[in-house]
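JOB MANIFEST
job_type = single_chain_structure
chain_count = 1
residues = 210
[input]
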Amino acid sequence: MKKLFALCCCLLLTSCFEITERIKHHDDQSGEYTLMVDFSKSWLKTKSAIWLEEVDGVKIPNEQEITQKLNDFKTKVSKIEGISNVAAKTDFDKYIFIIKLDYKNLKVLNEVVNILNKQKNQVHFTSDSKSFERVASYPIPENLLKDEKKKEDLEKASIIAIYTFDRDIAVTTNPNCKISKNKKTVFLKQSMYSVLKKSSLMNNDIQLTN
């Protein structure tokens, strides 16, 4: 499967979007992972780009190709031992794409994200009985930063991380994140432009209570 982030960047030629990574991580190290790519705020531009199939010399995948890529990803990660209940959903009315799955531990989740990003042996998540860490690494073409015409769209586009735990959150290392009132969920949102310049803005070391 092509990089999902690369797909987003192709459509970014005419659209802004949000990428939301949502995790519900349990004390036994299992959990649920959801990745949503949402173009609903610019669905008309996105629809036009997909219909044209090419913008500024860059090929834009059509609806059938997007569906096939998601299905190929679903088939591939479903074969990983420790991954279950894999689902890939498409909404071509609002242009929202969702991947959901359950993981037995973070080792297999790292494997999934590496397939998603076309990376090898990259550690995206670590955890023990007292902490959970996200180490951000996004395969987004850096040359997008060199095009001033894309800056405004990149600033409007967002990357969001929402992580929920069984136990209360004691403290987080990322100063930009927010902790929910019930202390179980942490929320972090950054502009795509900022993350392109510095991916560590999405890093977070979350300490949990005993």
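[summary]
The radius of gyration is 17 Å.
Residues 37 and 111 are 20 Å apart (CA to CA).
exit_status = 0
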